[in-house]
C-alpha cells in the first residue's frame, strides 16, 4: 500500500477524541455542558492535535441511560442547545480541520419515543413491528443480560398490549426491529440527515445486538450493515462506521465484511484493550503481545480502533475470572470501584495510582499500537473518577479546565472528584504552562503518531525483547520503519532487539534527542528506563542524522 493517498482513508491514522457535550463545557451558565461551550473549546482540541471528535449522544432523551435512550433522532437535546448551535459547532470544527462523528444508537430507542408509544398502543398498530414482540419469549440466558445490577431478563411484559418486548439493555430501551424494512429505511434516513449536517460518520452502538434478535430473522444480517455502508459511501465518500463489536477476533472479523471490508470501517479492539490491562497488571508483555500476534489483519481500507479506557466500565469480560481478579487487585481493589462483576468504573490515571511516569508510558503504548487511537476526554490531563457518582457516571464527570473547575459558573451536572484528582491538582490551564505535563506529552505523542503513518498503516511485527516486561514491535510501510518499545515495569531494563533488514541502520529517537545504531548482524541494544518508552525511526546510515549518544529513557 502507498502512503500517498492517506487522506482518502483519513480514519486510518486519525486521533479520535470522545466527549460528552453535557460534561465538556457549559456555555450558558446553567450547569449543563452545551454546543456553545464546546464550540468555544474547539481551538483547545485542535491545539491538542486530535483530528476527529466523537460526540456521545446529544439527542432529546429522558436521560435514563445518559442519552443512550433517545426520543427523537432528528434533533438536539434542548439542554445542550439547538440545531442552530450544532451547525455553528460543525462549521467551527470544520474550519479548524476537525472531523466529527456521533453515536448512532439504533439498536433501541427510549420507551418514551413516539414510535414505541405507538407500537405498544395495540397489536394492530402500524408501528407494532418496529419493535420485537413475543407471546412466548425464549428463556433468558444470564449471559445475555448486559446490566445485571438492574435487569434479570431481556424481555419485559407490556400489560397494555399483552405481549413481551425485547430490550437487550435496560427495560426502558426497547429494541428496534431491523427485520422490518421500514426500520432499516428510517435508520438510513437518520444517517443521511446528520451527514447532510456535516458528520463524517458514526460510532455504532451495540452492533451485534442491532443485527441479531430481530423478527423475522434477517437471512443475512450482515447485508444490512453492508447496505448502510454503501448508502453512506454513495452520499459522501470517506464516511465511516466505527463499531462497538465486543466479540472474540474470530467472530468480530465478519463485521468488517468477510474479507471485503464493506461493512464496519473500524472496530474497537476490545481484546487488545483487555490484554493490555492484564499486561500492565502483571508487568508482563505476554498477554498484549499474544493479542497482537493473534489479531487478524482487517480487510483493505478497514482499521482497528485502539483504546485503553472509554466512557463505559473498563470491561474485562473476555478475560478469565482469575485474570479479572488480578486486574481488580492491581487497579481497583475496593468493591465500590468494581461494577457488574466484570469491570471497573475508574479512569486510567487513578488506576495507575497517579504515577505520571507510568501513565505517560501507558498512553505512549496506546498511541504506538497498530491502529487508530481513541481517547476519552480528560485523559490528556490525567483526570480521575468520582466514585460518588452512580455506576458508570463515575468516569463521566465535568472536564477540568482550571483550578476552580472551569466547567460551569453554576452547580455542575455532575460533581468533580476531591483529593489528588480534584481540579485544583488536575486541570488544563496548569498543564498548558508546564512543559513536563501529561497534556504536553499527549501533544507530543499525537504529533509523532501523525508523523509516523507506518504505525497506523504498516505491517507490524511483535519483536522478542528477551525481557518479559518489555513489549516491542516494528511497523513497516513503503520501505519506512518505526520501532517502538515500552517497559511495563518500574525498573530499568536493557533489551536487545533483532531487526531483520535494518542491518547497520541508525534509529533516531522520536521522543527525546538521541540515536542508536543497529549492528552489522541486525541487533540493537536498547536501554529502557523504568516505565520507559522508545519510538525510533529507522534510516539507512547514509541519510541518518549525525546525533548524540544513547540515553536510557
Ligand atoms: C453501549 C454504550 O457504550 C453504553 O454506554 C450504553 O449504555 C449501551 N450501549 C446501551 O446503549
From TrEMBL:
Q: Which SMART domains match?
A: Aamy
| Name used for this protein in its record | Trehalose synthase
Q: Which residues form the Glycosyl hydrolase family 13 catalytic domain?
A: 18-414
Single Gene Ontology BP term?
carbohydrate metabolic process
InterPro entries with a match to the protein in the record: GH (IPR017853), GH13_cat_dom (IPR006047), Glyco_hydro_b (IPR013780), O16G_dom_2 (IPR045857), SupH-like_C (IPR054049)
